[in-house]
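lol so apparently i was supposed to do this last week
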Amino acid sequence: MTHTAVSVIAAKRDGAELDDEQIDWVVDAFTRGEVADEQMSALAMAIVLRGMTRRELDRWTAAMIASGRRMDFTDLPRPTVDKHSTGGVGDKITLPLAPLVAACGAAVPQLSGRGLGHTGGTLDKLESIPGWRADLDPARMRSILTDPEIGAVICAAGADLAPADKRLYALRDVTGTVESVPLIASSIMSKKIAEGTGALVLDVKVGSGAFMKNFRDATELATAMVELGTDAGVRTVALLTAMDTPLGRTAGNALEVAESVEVLAGGGPPDVVELTVALAREMVAQAGIRDVDPADALADGRAMDRWRAMVAAQGGDPDAPLPRARHTETLVAQESGVLTRLDAMAVGLAAWRLGAGRARQGDPVQFGAGVEMHCKPGDSVTAGKPLFTLHTDSEAAIPAAIATLRAGFDIGPVPPVAHPLILGRIGL
Ligand code: URA
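anyway here it is w/ uracil bound
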């Protein structure tokens, strides 16, 4: 049967379930440039409004994968497992997590992205390490994963990995079609399945600083992604984790690398340690590794040894001083009490304004920029004592960042109710 973009758009607009042929044709024709950007944008909007069935979503995701290259690590001597976070403020967990899981006996092929907007990208953080390179060819990636002293790699996804998703995501970004469970789930999972991992742990963030603001929407997204992974033969599980307040005490590239190194050295903020160990336990279990507790590999320095080897294998110097911003400014408390709220979105936006993030794809980021938090919700504060230190190379950005931060916290007489960091789990 001959298809046209208009007939596929109209079918979805009118609430029909697209068949396999229609899906394969439209994704392939879009990849080849036969379906125009405005037609794909119209289809994306129809999907936002009408949704997709599980069968449609499986096929759509398979078509996105088939638009490019699919990697295969099934011949590696160790089981492969990866993690994906839907993005949060101060979320540096991948940095300690990948070497930790490698130290437990799995291979971790992590393809990551650069940040856009208020959440930082893993590659931006790692690129603050002098010499470190994100671009590895598949042969080098494989040799690092096979190396018994390393076993973890964090690098940029090549242009040939799910190229249909790259083009579609750029359209969604400018046509109000990002917020759709099937489109987000297929976008994330097409890249993760194409990357060739045997197992996957998803960290789906919930809260003011996350894509998904409430538990119900996050559960729907997590369920869709777990089903997609499972249907594609990738053992997949999701944790739902809180993102109302930032993770750890730093938001910004080099600042977060330094905090990750503290965690690998056996210290670091308790929430970062808790989430790193929880995700590592899930990853190790999904990889089928028994009788190894990641908490031990963190405590005895094995994860730190892997980190140093992993950084060096990608050209980085793990001992080199990290970049520091030219200007710092400290914001002090104007009253005494307890910090009752610290909003993740406000901290993320302040770090972005200070230069830690980018407004447009391809913009440079400042490696030393960001926000250091001296208090977290529940901590006592004293008038005149530091609450935050702002770091930036652009002094002129400081007043706007301070205004953003000021709107993002409250000090009161009564400690806030403590909420758990891990809110739920989806998967077998
Ligand atoms: N991240 C992605 O890769 N795709 C989306 O659609 C949303 C977040």
